Records
---
Amino acid sequence: MAKREGKAEDFITHPAHTDRAKTVLKERESLGDRIRKARELHELTILELGDRTGIDADVLKRVEANKMIPPLGDLVKLGKALETGMSYLISPGTDKPMTVIHADQRKATSRLSGKRAERYGYSYESLAPEKANRSMEPFIVTLTPAEEVQPSTHDGQEFLFVLEGEMMAQVGRQKEHLKAGDAIYYDSAEPHFVKCTGGKEAKILAVIYPGGQ
């Protein structure tokens, strides 16, 4: 959902690299550490990773330094570029047939920090961080009022269900105003963005299929 800091925007797992990724991307490590180690595993510089993903190198530096959490759309791009999968970057998980996350175990992640997050960002909570080899990524996303929005494009598809508040979604040239109880499903390769409306936060269930797994 964003390419650069200050803009509110809205993986292919390569068989030859999957086992190595599992040994490199440890659960106890931070997201930034896992991205950095995966980049080093592929012998890529930050500039080269930026060229592959279209993400600004300065943003990637902040991400690897754990000073910024990338938006979900950028995690899709990073997972594909690093041939590890979005799920490994978020949380490698364990090989259990079923995992459960109780309400008091969810942890919110702000995509920016401080006041800029309140003005431009959103927060998201992974609903399946302990399940390995995930084909889908479910999140609870809290949208906050944003002054700027820019469309994002990446592989896969997305399903959104509005839990609280109201939001506007634009996919290509089509715009839809959604209220609690409404849902939308779209191809992420189309330029898209979502934002809350009415000056109030909105909470949504978002399920992302990164594609190609």
Note: The radius of gyration is 16 Å.
---
Amino acid sequence: MATSTSSTPAYRDLTRLPHVVIIGGGFAGIATARGLANQHVRVTIVDKHNFHTFLPLLYQVATAGLEPADVAYPIRTIFGNADNIGFRHARVSVVDHSRNLVVLDDDTELAYDHLVVATGATAAFFGIPGASKYSLPLYSLADARKLRNRLLLALERADVESEQASVTLNFVVVGGGPTGVETSGALSELIRIAIKRDGLRLEASDVRVLLVDLAPRLLTAFPESASRYAKKELEELGVEIQFGRSVVEVEENAIRFSDGERIETAAVVWAAGVTASGTLSHDLQASPGPGGRARVTADLRLVESVNVWAVGDAAAVPINDSEFCPQLAPVAIQSGRHCAAQILRVLDAKETVPFRYRNKGIMATIGRHAAVAKLPRGGVIKGTAGWLAWLGLHLWYLVGFRNKIRVMINWTWRYFDWPSGPRLIVADAETAE
């Protein structure tokens, strides 16, 4: 029986407890584990990284606003006070439904009573030639480090080349959603500050930040007023915005569009969407759901399974017969919490209850002092008020007290003045992992 308690379980022999294996240490996996912490179950989190990454702030690591350690926190430390939570640093290669076990990349087998798949999503390249090879996505800490190195190294090379001839650098951001808007704004600010503070022999006009999207406006999930505001703020930061642009190829140092235009680039940042195709969740079923996500029932169990669950970006969580929850951090957190509660209900021989997503709105920041926030009932907050709301929400959800303090200090410092900051090339731009 899985009896709820707020203290450490009385069981000391954890091997006798039902075993829950959680694949993935992102928002959904951590939320699930938190719901099972100090309960009468044994939990093993499996992840290829030993840390949890706060994905919404990766763009600030990529644009030298924060250090990698500011947005990452060791998984073992998160659950240091929960005796029933364990961690395994590994990749899962196979899920064997018939034997109720997962096979790790070192051929170790982990048996489970319940399995939670929280493997998240990855960048969607839509089959565009060269996009996966030459563009830079922003969906992991390694991605952020690699992008930061590429940006800073491009500026260093341009500084040297400017001694001999005029230089023009083109940074192209593909995708006008929140990630594209946030990254292009922060990138434009980084370039201006690096030129001003680091003594680069470049003019701001020598470096071009271009944001392109096939859609007719930015932030299509927001009201049009928010889109107009974001466009105005980005243009004031020096970002060039082009709509109706379809990318047909990404080359090593260039990008091609459907109208035949080819632009030489210092970097192509890929922020055009995510997919679960190519992740473990895609391979769980013969017929996965939209975007490669695992098809789940209303209580978040895998379709046609009694003890395998999928949550967060890995799951096609139904809203109704034709709609699914968006792949957002609030969905991941809420679905993880719900999944934990349902596992405990099953172990207590109780009926499960369906998941209900509580829309808390969406946000996007634009530079150091502006943001837009769409409220649950459709209202919009813009400008400094939106930025303050964005800051507060992200500090609230950031894991670790030390990280919260460091990020708050960095943001405060950057608001009033932009110090040298972490503008460090810590590895070769092409090999940083």
Note: The longest helix spans residues 141-161.
